[in-house]
Please model this.
Amino acid sequence: MFPTVGDQCSLWESVLPQELQRLPAELTRVDALLDDPAFFAPFVAFFDPRMGRPATPMETYLRLMFLKFRYRLGCEALCREVSDSITWRRFAGSRWMGRCRMRPRR
Model:
């Protein structure tokens, strides 16, 4: 399956104070850029929209990769930081509230 955009905000996010819901200026600018559907176009050919197991939404994946590149983090460090930061969690997308799927399997 090829989900491009994550679900709506969770109950937890809806009760957060307004000051915690705002993104920093840099992330706000990147958020506006990544809202462009043109970023999903290169991936469409590799995913069937009806079959296969549900994947991480491409929107979430691209946002996580931005954070990883921008802050020069490895996969495990990125998982720790996103799990620890409400701001980064909101930037990455509300579906990414669960367990980190980027960790290497052992």
